[in-house]
Design brief:
alpha/beta, two-stranded antiparallel ribbon, eight-stranded mixed β-sheet, globular, 11 helices, 3 domains, D-Maltodextrin-Binding Protein, domain 2, 46% helix, Arc Repressor Mutant, subunit A
Length: 293
């Protein structure tokens, strides 16, 4: 029987663009240019004889035909990928891992050398996401995300929040109690504007509305704190290395926020993924077991 299907490249381009919501995001995932994604989608539309996207190029919307095609196509590509990986399952090869950008820069990358040394045959490819929704849309072997209450996935560690500041700033304007925060600039991140209020609620203290600058990413906020520009309330795992190195102080300690970091992996058996998950949990346990000031 002859299968009269469009090209696999066209199907993959449409599926990635539809799932991620942006041609540029699809281009990043498939390692091609946005123009290539657009051309492949046009070829698929020509093959089908109908439009799959409508609206502006910046914010394309799925047509009824596109919405009908996406879930079936995603499921089919998932099955194809699982079948290929099952046949080629080994302890070597490529592993795709996605997580939040600050988590990647401040926690995962500094520890990844250890995994590479233990498993030199496994190439870990990292992808970043700015939200939980973005993580859910990525087609990766494993994603590291945050859950509230009872976490669903491979548990890593609970999140602990606490104010941190540079030693030079602490010497100039001491921080001994929560009341001392009134004398400081409170730094924020636009990706988590409720961090200070969350910490204050857990601590049971009154805190004025933060008036300091709000940086685009948590990583920028942490760097501003290291530079002495103000006080940042941060998760322990993101500042553990900086505290240990003396770049930051945490005079008020840390408290549970109610969030939990978890890893969500593909369900099918995968030797590379098994090894990475075992390593990831061991590293997480080491971080959580560190002496918190």
């Amino acid at each position: 029987m002859t299968r009269r299907l469009p090209s696999l490249n066209a199907l993959r381009a449409f599926e990635a663009a539809a799932r991620l919501g942006r041609m540029t995001a699809a281009a990043d995932e498939l390692s091609v240019t946005p123009g290539a994604i657009s051309r492949q989608v046009q070829l698929l539309e020509q093959h089908l004889g109908q439009r799959l996207f409508e609206g502006s190029k910046n914010k394309p919307q799925l047509t009824p035909a596109g919405r009908s095609l996406l879930p079936e196509l995603s499921a089919a590509l998932d099955r194809m990928e699982a079948a290929v990986k099952a046949v080629s399952d080994s302890a070597t090869g490529t592993l795709d891992v996605a997580c939040f950008s600050t988590f990647m820069v401040k926690w995962l990358i500094p520890r990844l050398f250890d995994f590479n040394a233990r498993h030199p045959g496994i190439d870990v490819r990292l992808r970043t996401a700015d939200s939980t929704t973005d993580l859910e849309r990525t087609r990766c072997d494993l994603s590291i995300t945050v859950e509230e209450d009872t976490p669903a996935g491979l548990p890593l560690f609970p999140e602990l929040l606490g104010p941190v500041l540079a030693p030079t700033l602490a010497a100039h304007t001491p921080l001994r109690t929560a009341d001392d925060l009134a004398a400081h600039t409170l730094l924020q991140s636009t990706t988590r504007l409720n961090a200070w209020s969350m910490w204050a609620k857990v601590q049971g203290c009154a805190l004025r509305e933060p008036s300091g600058p709000a940086y685009e990413h948590y990583y920028f906020t942490l760097q501003a704190a290291i530079a002495g520009l103000g006080v940042c309330v941060a998760p322990w795992h993101l500042v553990a290395d900086d505290v240990a190195a003396g770049r930051l102080l945490a005079p008020l300690g840390f408290c549970p926020s109610g969030y939990h970091y978890v890893a969500k992996r593909r369900p099918e058996r995968n030797q590379k993924l098994d090894l990475f998950c075992t390593w990831l949990q061991a590293q997480s346990a080491q971080t959580h077991a560190l002496q918190i000031p």
